[in-house]
Amino acid sequence: MRGKVILDLPEFSEGPLPNAKGPKLDPFPHNGGHIEFLRLLGAGEHGYVFEVIIESQRYALKMFKFYDPIGHQQRLSILNMSDNDVTHQFDPFFAECRAFGRLKECGLDGDAAVHCYGYIILPPAFKSIATRFKALIWDRASESQPF
User: Fold this and answer.
1) Phi, psi dihedrals of residue 135, rounded to the nearest 5°
2) Which candidate, 12, 28, 2, places its Cα nearest to that of 123?
3) Integer angstrom CA distances of residue 117 from 16, 29, 94, 110
4) What is the mean pLDDT of residues 59-78?
5) What is the radius of gyration, based on Cα positions, of the chain?
6) 60, β-bridge pairs
7) Which of helix, strand or coil describes residue 132?
8) How many Cβ atoms sit within 10 Å of the Cβ of residue 46?
9) Which parts of 2-144 fold into alpha helices (H)?
10) CA of 54: how far to CAs of 39, 67, 76, 107, in Å?
11) Contact 25, 119 (CB under 8 A)
12) Per residue in 78-104, pLDDT tens?
């Protein structure tokens, strides 16, 4: 499909994530600007990987599908965990934030896995990517809610 998707990057960051105990990942160091989506590189259960350009540099950007904690809450109800705790422990995005945060703490970023530059919170306009790359599904149904 022709045409590029270019989105404005927000100028603020959330700070290190997840907002829970344990290792954290810092935001991607950018100064606003734009992100240009060039092509879809791959897809998996938890998200999609795109080739992008940010500030004239090429990157692989993993975008995660939205997480629905309902399935985990039902299985973990015996532990009496809050929705926030369940999300920060089981959401694939936060799991990768913790994993890459730990690799950075140990000085292994780029050695034990690919180098991670940080995370980016995209604006709601990211949904235009679905139009450009066709058939991308951002919501993952929980076990109790079939597609």
Assistant:
1) 65, 25
2) 12
3) 12, 8, 15, 10
4) 75
5) 16
6) 51
7) helix
8) 16
9) 70-75, 83-90, 92-105, 128-133
10) 14, 26, 40, 25
11) yes
12) 666 777 777 777 889 999 999 999 999
Backbone CA torsion sign across 107, 94, 144, 134: negative
**35's tokens:** 């992100």
d(CA 71, CA 145): 9
> Nearest Cα to 119, choosing from 4, 9, 37?
9
Give the whole-angstrom CA distance, residue 67 versus residue 84: 12
Identify the burial level of 12 via C-beta atoms within 10 angstroms of its C-beta, where 0-12 means exposed, 13-18 middle and 19 or more buried. exposed
pLDDT at 142 over 50: no
Count of alpha carbons within 13 Å of 67, Cβ hemisphere only?
18
Has residue 28 got a pLDDT over 50?
Answer: yes
Q: Is 102 helix (H, G, I), strand (E, B) or coil?
A: helix
A 10 A CB-CB count for 31 gives 7
Q: Is 55's pLDDT higher than 80?
A: yes
Of 28-37, 54-63, 65-74, 133-142, give the range with the top mean pLDDT.
Answer: 54-63
Quote the pLDDT of residue 139.
65
Which one, of 37, 32, 11, lies nearest residue 136 by Cα? 37
Q: Is 25 helix (H, G, I), strand (E, B) or coil?
A: strand
